[in-house]
Amino acid sequence: MKRFLIIFVVLVAVAAFGYWLYLQSGMLVEVATVRQGTIRAFIEERAKTRLPEIHEITMPLTGRIMPIELEEGDQVKSGQQVAQMDDDDLETDLKASDAQVNQFVEVVKSINLAVEAAQEQINASLAKFEYEEREYERVSELAEKKAISESDLGASELAQFESRVDHRTDVLTWRSIQAIQTAMLIAKINSEDERLRDQRDLNRSVIKTPVSGTVLKRHVSNEKVMQAGEVLLELGEMDKLEVEAEVLTQQAVEIEVGDAVEIEGPTVGDAKINGKVTKIYPQGFTKVSSLGVEEQRVLVIIQFEKPLLEIEKELNKKLGIDYRLRVSIITEERDDTLIVPRTSLFRDLNNNWSLFVVRNGKAMKTEVDTGLMNDFEVEILKGIESRDQVILAPDSELTDQARVEIEE
């Protein structure tokens, strides 16, 4: 019995000593030191590369396209021939219209001569009419004086009438020839226009690119008949490569043109590429997320700060269109401010931002005023000082002034 009592006393003493050690050691916690530095508020989003414009090389007119030798990735220069139409029919049309123009030229020359002849005939008949009219006036005066016979007066009057009719006939003939001349001139102009159209179509059968760039897609490789407007090639100016991100509209309102952007992702490896926001589309759109939730998003366009060739040289990688990236759009930045890890913050019972500061081995619950905040860090405006140690991800059972032990 005595031996049992001794054992019981020893066990109680050991338990009391263990509990005392537990009280002295406190809860094991991980801490971070409050630092003073720069914090950024940013919006992180998936993105992809794109070109602002893709140039389509199309069939200029209906016809047969010859085989296209260019392939995807080939470089072309502005004005370079990229395709050729079968131009046999076009050359035939041009020769026919050219011959028609030459015919009209000869016809117009003949008509011009006829107009000149008719004009001379008018001048002659007018002179004759004027002469007969003067002669009739002279004979009429003599007839009044009974110096000539009535038959001479009648002959003079008849000659004057016939000369008038002849002159009017010549004028009508001249006008008719002029009308034919006008019609032939119009027909000549129309035939010349047709020849110009045929010449233009023949010239357009040699298809050239209006821009320098890279062949993105070849729609046709073999010879075939195609309609006007059908796409042959797609070209892009790769030096104008940019990035587009679909940003939630509630976040997009914080973005401004000119905001700095950090571009990263598996496409570019471990590197971070600098860019800036160049455009925010005025109209949003609805997109269903992977969870089936409808979201309102808007396109934000980002431009690389450096030329593409320089970026590719630094990365030792070739970038293309629709390559997947991630962007961090920096909406605000502050220097020389107190910063703590975001995991150190929590909402207390009054819904105020709080954290635990370790002082003299105890966790001191401290309310703080926050400023900028991102996924990793928070700006603290009031409540703590630089070099303070704050507890990371505090346990829900941790209470104010509880003893803690910092994890090494």
TrEMBL record:
Q: Which Pfam families match?
A: YknX_C
Q: What coarse category fits the chief subcellular location reported for this protein?
A: other
Keywords, sorted A to Z: Coiled coil
**What domain of life does the UniProt record list for this protein's source?**
Bacteria
PANTHER family registered for this protein in UniProt: EFFLUX SYSTEM COMPONENT YKNX-RELATED (PTHR32347), UPF0194 MEMBRANE PROTEIN YBHG (PTHR32347:SF29)
The record's subcellular locations are: Cell envelope
Organism expressing this protein natively: Polystyrenella longa
Q: Which residues form the YknX-like C-terminal permuted SH3-like domain?
A: 339-405
Q: Which GO terms describe its cellular component?
A: periplasmic space
Name the record gives this protein: Macrolide export protein MacA
